[in-house]
Design a protein that fits this description.
The chain is α/β, with parallel strands linked by helices. It has helices at residues 10-22, 33-42, 59-69, 84-92, 105-122, 152-163, 171-179, 190-203; strands at 2-6, 26-30, 47-51, 53-54, 57-58, 74-79, 97-100, 126-129, 132-135, 140-143, 146-148, 169-170, 212-215, 219-222.
């Protein structure tokens, strides 16, 4: 689970990051609007913890752009502002929850877990693409009733592309998602190409996989209507 924390209070930021990492979340933090916007243009996150009062702008501007480009990303607003209108504005713009400061880290964790449960309950874990059915929870791929075995990283790459259907993902984005450490990706982007080749090799005997497309010089995407 990847979380971006946008918070300019240094001590609070450090405290939240340490707490989330103790609970096995992968967390990145920034304290400015400009940095947050740039990070969100380059990376995908499952959660954004968003302060409204930033030194170089308003958190609402980040929320607006985020919901245009990454509408499925979950946003919890963290703000000392107690005005009810701020809460209404944030929810109207697409925020999933609002946690006023000061708050306990235990409550923050409970809010994150509650949203994850609601999302899981409302979504079918099975995704159909072409003639294949991919079940994210059971980590299986089937063609009709035949199960096709993919290695862990092959399955992770396939499901990440599926969850971002019709969007081009770079090799760097795929590498970071699967391996979890962007610093290791230098010179190793061909790992993604090898795994994509293996996915195609395993699926092609059963049906056409032209929906899994190479985007020259960038990466890969899955086109849902093929």
């Amino acid at each position: 689970m990847k979380i971006l924390l946008v918070e300019d209070e240094v001590y609070l930021c450090k405290e939240i990051v340490e707490f989330l990492e103790q609970h096995q979340y992968e967390c990145q933090a920034t304290g400015t609007k400009s940095q947050a916007v740039q990070i969100l243009r380059d990376r995908f996150f499952d959660f954004i913890l968003l302060d409204l009062g930033l030194p170089d702008g308003n958190g609402f501007d980040i929320l607006k752009e985020l919901k245009q480009n990454q509408p499925k990303t979950i946003v919890i607003i963290l703000s000392a502002k107690g005005d009810i209108q701020d809460r209404i504005n944030g929810l109207d713009l697409g925020a999933d929850d609002y946690l006023p400061k000061p708050f306990s880290l235990a409550e923050l964790h409970a809010r994150i877990q509650a949203i994850i449960r609601r999302r899981s309950d409302s979504q079918d874990s099975s995704i159909t693409i072409g003639d294949f059915e991919v079940d994210i929870q059971s980590r299986t791929v089937h063609h009709n009733k035949t199960q096709i075995t993919l290695y862990k990283k092959e399955f992770d790459i396939l499901t990440y592309l599926l969850l971002n259907k019709n969007r081009v993902l770079s090799r760097t984005q795929l590498y970071e998602y699967v391996w979890g450490d962007l610093s290791l990706s230098e010179g190793d982007s061909n790992h993604i190409d090898v795994h994509i080749k293996n996915i195609r090799k395993k699926l092609t005997p059963f049906a056409n996989v032209d929906w899994l497309e190479s985007v020259r010089g960038i990466g890969y995407k899955i086109t849902a209507n093929k």
